Structures are given as structure tokens and as C-alpha cells.
Ferrochelatase (Pseudothauera lacus), 364 residues
Amino acid sequence: MARYRPEPAYTHGRPARSAVVLVNLGTPAAPTAAALRPYLKQFLSDPRVVEIPRLLWWPILNGIILNTRPKKSAEKYASIWMPEGSPLQVYTERQAKLVKGCLGGEPPGIEVHWAMRYGQPSIPHVLEQLRAAGCTRILVVPLYPQYAAATTASVMDEVARSMLTWRNLPEVRFVRSFHDDPGYIAALAQSVREHWMKNGQGDKLVMSFHGIPKRSLTLGDPYHCECHKTGRLLAEALELPAERVLVTFQSRFGRAEWLQPYTQPTLEALASKGLKRVDVMCPGFVADCIETLEEIAMECRTAFIGHGGQQFDYIPCLNDRPDWIAALSALTRRHLGHWSELPAADPVALQDSARRAREMGADC
């Protein structure tokens, strides 16, 4: 068998084509145990996600986890499933369409696609589409604001692995992280202000980030530091004193110690000590998903109220907010650099473009 696959037809003199791929974590195709099993198997088989020797992990994964967890997870997914599908899929697809709308003035031929690290559309599938379309410049934008080996690096791995059989490789760029990007921070801050205008302020603002094993921090993963920097910048933008803000970590898996403080126990302790009202947001997720809508907005709400709290307000993720789409589009254009061959766009004009694109795509 040939090592490299045949290349698409090529025309000499054809101008270079640029493409953008927004990548998020992934989602099962349906909220069912049958759909969860292959999704979880792919996710939990990634050595970037579970750093346990394969000989030890494989029997646990296939003999225990994949026989018990799919049914439980399916019930949770069913509780947050939207008419159009998984929230993560719905919002990621919208983000791609809206960014494409904001980049409408780019040279003809630029592509904007979206992919999932686990599930569909897969990274290899989307890259094959771009290969067939003759794209020779690809910007990959992992939609993880804070870099972690288990997320951003896994996307980089999969992109490289997908191109192992390509003979004619494109130029590839990655957005490593955007935890301190001014547009991202400004969009987060405005989402909090708007929530406060409608609902009033809680006694504390809890920023819950997805957890990773503490061992990752000690081995040099910068994720913990980037989460705390996001939290600090957001608190500064909101002019909140330190005692009004907490950074916590959620979604712990297994028995090993993960980054602390853990979100749910922290909320339970706050309620037990007499805190009556709390606002909770998840800045590490740019689109609502099972970790935000079920774990935080449902499970943590129940825990807080059950321990004596009176009001739990969940502040949604950025999703398809115009200011976030404008920030993401500006970030994308900066990383495209000379590939876009256009001067930097005015931020206000980008936000107006995002709003118009959102209105045009509202019925999609």
C-alpha cells in the first residue's frame, strides 16, 4: 500500500486559498447510550486526556467505564438537548457561520469551517474537505481560551496525524490560547454586566473552569495559571474586589487530586456559611454544553440551594453574542496575518458585522 494518497488535481498559477477551522471538544450524535459509547471511547482513549499507561487503562475503560457511564451520561445529555441538537454543536456551528459573515470582506476563496476533536464533523473529515478545495493555508483555532495539553495540544496532535498521508502539505497555523485577549475579556465582562442589569448582583461571582489533574500542573502545564489570569482580568474589568470573586475547578474524574478548589464543594461550603446569593459563570467554555448547562446550572444549583443558599444565577457562555463573535473574528484576522491581505478591521465595524451576520443567520 502506498504511503501517501493521490493528491487532488492541481492547476499551476492558481492563487493561494486560506481557510479557518474552529475546533471544539465534541459531542455525541444523540443523547442515547448507543451514541455515547463510541464518543466516550474516542475521548477517553486519547492519551492526552488520560495519562495512564495503556495496559492499565484499557481494561478499566472497556470493561467498566464503557459499560456503565454511557447510560448515565445519556440521561444528562437528554436534559440539555436542544431541538437543533447538542448545544455545543449548535453554538459552534453558529460561531463558524457568524465568523464567516464577519470575514465577508476577505479575498474570495477563504473558507471558514468547524470541527470537533471527538465526534463529528471530525478534524480529518474537515481537513479533507479543505484539501479537496485546494486550500494551502489553514489556520486552526481551538476554541479553548486557556491552553492545556489535554485540549489544545490534542487538537494539534490530531491535525498533524491527519496529514501524515498527504504529500502536498499546506501551511498550518494554530491559535495557542486567548486567555488574556482583550476582546474575549471585554465580551465576558459585558455578559456579566448585562446579567446584573436584568437580575441584580449576587454576593459572589464564581468563575468555574474545567479541571485537570494536579499532576499536570506540577509537570509544567500552564492551564492553571492561564485560568487565574483570565479570572483576574475579568475581575479588574468588572471592578470587583478580591473578596467578591472566586476561581474554582469542575468536572473532576477519578480518584486523583485535581486542581482546587472544586466548584460544587465550594458552593456547598459558601451556602453552609450563610451566603445567600451567588452568580456562577464558566469562562473556560465559549459555548454552553453539558458541563455548563447540566453540571453547573442544574447540579450545582441544586447543591447550593440544598445547603442553605437562596438564589443561584448561572450566567451563560458567550455562545453567539455579537461582541464575542467580533472578538473571535478579530483574533482570527490577527492570526491570519498576511494571508488575509487586508488591513486590520475596526473593532466597532467588526461587531456591527457580527450583529448583521447573526440577524441574517437567525433562521438557519
